[in-house]
Amino acid sequence: MVGNRAAVFVVFGLNGAVYGTWAPRVPALAERLHAAPGSLGLALLGASIGMVIAASMSGHLVERFGARAAIVASTLLSCVILPFVGAAGSVVALGFVMFGLGASVGALDVSMNIAAVGVERRAGRAIMPVFHAGFSFGGLIGSAAAGLAASQHWSPLRHFVVAAVVILVALLIVLPGLPRSAPRAEQTRPAARVAPIRRPVLWLLAAIALCSAVAEGASSDWSALLLVTVQHVDQAAAALAFSGFSLTMALTRLGGAWVQNRFGATRTLVAGAALAGLGLVVAAVVPVAGFAYAGFGLAGAGLAASFPIALGLAGAAGKRDDDSGGEREIAFVTTIAYSGFLAGPPVIGGLAQLTTLSVSFIVVGFLAALIAPAAVGAGRARHREVTAATAAS
Which residues partner with 319 through β-bridges? Predict the structure, then answer.
């Protein structure tokens, strides 16, 4: 039977594969629907809105039904909705379908991270970055398959049906290995818990995830345009910038757990913030294509650990005496991070309109660097909470 760690790793990969499946086929969807860029952008915004709403609710649902049930339900929902993305007959219909797909992905994101925190607790050492490497590799595999489907002139509908079946089969294979959790009534819970919104440590961890999300979203949505307009490379070569970013992120995440265990979460986050900030600024200001590619590669490596470590620490901040807990805390941090994916691209685009795209990326580099002070602050806030709890007991 597949073990807990392998099963959760695969689920992360399946989530990444969902995104990697539909995102590269957006041009084909736009062509089929004769959609203008503005209306298409509004339709795709539905996915981000669905993700934010679902993430904000998922913590309570996982607390009630368990991460395993939430993973299965949200993955099945993604498999059902994905073909409808390819079958949408209008831009309005696409917007509604993308909202549903975003909601399913958002619920899966929270539930799989909660499951990963549980596996990490049982392992007794940091392994969250490795799980997030699964997401990165899933996205790479999904996007590669999307490229193959496009080259074979598959319609989005045909492609998405096949992808949904493959994802469903993979889920069924790893289903026995997904960790089980006790029903809520059987868990030992304190009489009162501090709401996440009232805990400074969670706001600081959310700031880390938010800055990471904005920087990752900027690299995804704007890196190719930066190389075309600033370095004057052709579109095909410019697309490789995000490929390099994604690849270095995936590979760094494989070793991120070792780095975190060796040097600690705070030092890992600070070093990563410095790398990411430097890489993004270099990509923005040095008018040489080679430096831009290297800059985005550095950014991918620097941001690799930010999101997984922030969620791992959020889960630790919600840990209870019976080794359960963390559902609401992870959902809180994830919801705020998703707002970065929601607001980041239009804000960056607006700033570029007022100034230049290079200036926008300098600002994004500054935001990535802010992960460092937020990490230091989160460590101190957590220490104060532990000290206060010890004194109270």
Answer: 325
The sign one gets for the Cα dihedral 316, 317, 323, 326 is: negative
**Cα(393)–Cα(261) distance, integer angstroms:** 29
Give CA–CA dist 337/205, Å, rounded.
10
Distance between CA atoms of residues 234 and 326, nearest Å: 46
Give residue-wise pLDDT tens across range 222-267: 787 888 888 788 876 776 787 888 889 999 999 988 999 999 999 9
Q: How many residues belong to the chain?
A: 393
User: What DSSP string runs through 30-52?
Assistant: HHHHT--HHHHHHHHHHHHHHHH
Which of 45, 136, 158 is CA-nearest to residue 94? 45
> Residue 88 and residue 147: Cα distance in Å, rounded?
21
Query: b vs e for 1-19, b when ≥16 Cβ sit within 10 Å of the residue's Cβ?
Result: eeebbebbbbbbbbbbbbb
* One-letter identity of residue 239: A
Which residue spans within 233-376 are E strands per DSSP? none
3-state helix, strand, coil in the chain (%, to 5): 85, 0, 15
Q: Alpha-carbon distance 205 to 379, whole Å?
A: 9
Under DSSP, is residue 14 helix (H, G, I), strand (E, B) or coil?
helix
List of E strands, 224-369: none
CA dist 369 and 66 (Å) reads 36
CB-based contact 212:303 (threshold 8 Å): yes
| Residue 82 contacts residue 132 (beta carbons within 8 Å) | no
Extract the tokens encoding 201. 């440590």
Q: Give the pLDDT confidence of 260-278 residue by residue, as tens digits.
A: 999 999 999 999 999 999 9
